Amino acid sequence: MKFFIDTANLEQICQAQALGILDGVTTNPSLMAKEGIKGKENIFKHYKAICDIVDGPVSAEVFATEFKGMTEEGEELYQIDPNKITIKLPCTQEGIKAVKYFSDKGYRTNCTLIFTVGQALLAAKAGATFCSPFVGRLDDIGEDGVSLIEEIVSTYRYYGFKTEVLAASIRHTNHILKCIQAGADVATCPLKSILGLIDHPLTTKGLEIFCKAAESMK
Ligand code: G3P
Fold first, then answer.
1. Is 193 exposed, middle or buried (0-12, 13-18, 19+ CB in 10 A)?
2. What is the pTM of this model?
3. Do 148 and 116 contact (CB within 8 A), yes or no?
4. Which one from 34, 40, 84, 88 is the annotated catalytic residue?
5. For the chain, counts of helices (H) and of strands (E)
6. What is the rounded distance in angstroms from the CA atom of residue 128 to the CA atom of residue 141?
7. Ligand 1 within 6 A of 137 CB?
8. pLDDT value at position 63?
9. What is the mean pLDDT of the chain?
């Protein structure tokens, strides 16, 4: 089970990396825009800065929506750090073609905006390294995001696909726990949700008791 952080915020990425449990980073255009980054040169510099912080894959999403633009942009993104950059492509007809194009070249890809098993199946057939089902956004419309993770995991296992199920649009700590139970290979999470896995009132209380005992022995 791998943990990615879902942000483009360098401070938060550093904080998660310092915990020693971070396996990678995912970004998307909304998360990049939130950091106030403008212009291609700054966008590329920002991805490079992220790659320099973490050891694992860094998903960088293309802005283009048609095949030619996606492949040109993806190629440029990949060259920022061929050991880490994972080209993130939407699950559209053009996106699936681009996933296949890059997987044939041996490049890592993340097929994003997945909301059905059918989409996940096509992403895997095209050779995606990761498929990103959006858990929170399905919950938002009254569907069950975690059930989709379970269905994709069992479909991939049945057919022996190597594509990793990357649970995305995680909104809280319980989403992470449920996605782990559903068999997701990766959960990409906001920092707050990751930190929520650590905190427990009995841990805090127990530590207070131990600290008092330690103090009494000085
Ligand atoms: O990884 C995709 C994620 O960033 C989307 O999250 O909360 O905007 O649905 P959200």
1. buried
2. 0.96
3. yes
4. 88
5. 11, 8
6. 27
7. yes
8. 97
9. 98
